[in-house]
Amino acid sequence: MTERTVMVMSNEGRGDEQRLWYEYQQLRSPAAREALILQYASLVKYVAGRIAIGLPPNVDFDDLVSYGIFGLMDAIDKYEAARGIKFETYAIARIRGAILDGLRSNDWVPRSVRQKAREVERTCLDLENRLGRSATDQEISEAMNLSLQEFHQMLSEISCTTLSSLDELWTAHNPEDESVRVLDLVENPDSEDPEQQVEMEELRRALAKAIDALPERDRLVITLYYYEGLTLKEIGEILEISESRVSQIHTKAVLRLRGRLGRWRSHVVGV
Q1: What's the number of domains the chain is made of?
Q2: Distance of CA 80 to CAs 87, 109, 193, 231, Å?
């Protein structure tokens, strides 16, 4: 097959895709919508596979895919090409959110595990307030009356509570106290609540500042996982550490961010 043939086939593929979007968005064709779902179904398995890595074995992968399909359909229904965002980028965020919503609705994380996660989060924040810097693992373990090995084991146990994406670390609340995703606000610049949009923009800056303040290795793991799209295993190969150690670092980093953003909200937003 020649390079010219490949280019022609690629162009034809893009033409078919554009035709499907036109038929669905302009003509509201159910057949076009179904074709788009089938065309992008692989995104659901990709996202479900990434999330499944940090879940206990009793969580069924097929359930994750089922949740994700709803996210894909929602993305197809709400996508606006004029906004200049690639559909794949937009859809992945929607699919991930739908899967996490499905997991939360089933409350699959034991209460004791959530309590341990909150304890680590509080300890990290208290130490940072007192020390004026990020606490080391040794300092955190001592503050919790644990050995370093016990602390690392705890991080492994609570890793499943830190699966949410960075977008979900900072949610706003409307007057009815319903959770509002950042993505929803980004999609709708003409929101009827400009005050909420200002809050979210300030929160974006707070998140960026919180990430910059992380210890170097924590910051690198967050960057590689969320922004570069690498798996924990791939990050471990880059850093020359085990996948389980990467998971521990990721868990600790996310808990640090949760604590810092929670403090920001209490001071600025009054939540």
Answers
A1: 2
A2: 8, 35, 21, 29
For 263, residues 6+ apart whose C-beta sits below 8 A from its C-beta are 125
- The reported pTM is 0.65
What are the start-end ranges of the H helices in 40-178?
A: 41-52, 61-78, 87-105, 111-131, 137-143, 148-157
DSSP code of residue 179: E
CB atoms within 10 A of CB 96: 25
Do residues 139 and 75 both lie within one domain? Answer: no
Whether the per-residue pLDDT at 190 is higher than 60: the answer is: no
Q: What is the pLDDT of residues 121-139, one digit of tens each?
A: 999 999 999 999 899 999 9
Q: Are residues 193 and 129 in the same domain?
A: yes
Q: Are 236 and 246 in contact (CB under 8 A)?
A: yes
What is the CATH number for 263? 1.20.140
**Residue 193: which domain range?**
111-269
Letter for the amino acid at 85?
I
Q: Are 211 and 219 in contact (CB under 8 A)?
A: yes
